[in-house]
Amino acid sequence: MLDSIPNHLFANILLRLPFESLLQSRRVSKSWRSLIDSPEFVRMHFDAFHLKSSKSQDNETFRIVSSTRNNFYTLDFDDIGAGKAIAKRLKPPLDHLGSDEVRLVGSCNGLLCLVYPNSSTILVWNPWIQKAWELPSPPVEYSMFGGADSLLGFGYDSVNDDYKVFNKMRFYDVFDEDQSTWSDEVYVYCFKYSSWRKMEHFQTNYTPSNSFFIPRDGSFVSGALHWMGGKDQNGVIDIMAFDLSTEEFRKMACPRQPERSFIYPHKLVALNGFLCFVSFYYGEDGGKCVDLWLMEEYGKVESWIKLTTIKLGYTDMMHMFCGFTPLAYSKNSRGLLSQIDGEKFLVYDFETQKMSDLRIDGAQVSFLHSVVNVGSLIRPHY
């Protein structure tokens, strides 16, 4: 009977299914799977998701993908303000790497970018369709006694319809402490061409660090990757942005803030699609505070607004302070979901200005890092 239904009508029926039901439909038959996995249907499904999201007054239903040392879990929410989530373990993309530690670089359109530092493996993974694409190594040469730090980023180039991975590598001699002799190289991997391209010009004072407190991976917002830049001659800190379409760097101004006893470094994250500037400082009473700033109109310095100030109190554990990372907020329930990296999740109530621990059912593990993720059928290339 279904064979008699034209493909375009059948596709419209499938588009109305919840995402989990759509994934199950891929297992019904080869013809169903072929239709659902086709580039045309994948694009229709993704466009329909964005249309539904734009018409919704709030983003109440979403997923968080969290990593442990070498495993991944999805945390499903119905409402941030409810203060609870259900954790489900995801099948890891590379079983053969065993206990190799994994770093969660970023998320874009349902795709996750991962790096396995011990094996220098970078891959892009769609956990919902269980497909992973391993990238070749960048075309670089290592000295005999050398090493390399990486500054990574992942996002979508909407102009050229291409997913890209950014990799800034700082090469150094382990026996030479003179940083002026170290060299920086920047490579961009384009999935459309399945190759790395070396960028000839890169100027920033930002230095990758193995410190727990310094976020190394770029935040993807409005077609660009963002990192905290260095201080200029006047001591002003700027934001370094890399446009994935033009493949050019530019500087952006941070929000203007009153003179305070800041605790460097500040942090940049993507929060509900906006660029979010996270500022850590000591309050007037000596307690530790966090200001969250949103850039309402991307690229316009005057559009920075302060979302809220969170008082974390007098904790002596610095990682509990600088490891604070906002993930998502709900306008309707006025709840903010955040994570203390490597420790726990917190829910902040905007109205009561109180913080509470998130209750997680289904897993008793410590999550290192987390990103907001959407269920999609997207592949980085076809």
From TrEMBL:
CDD domains: F-box_AtFBW1-like (cd22157). Gene3D superfamilies: 1.20.1280.50. Residues 1-44 form the F-box domain. Pfam families: F-box (PF00646), FBA_1 (PF07734). This is OLC1v1038851C1. It comes from Oldenlandia corymbosa var. corymbosa.
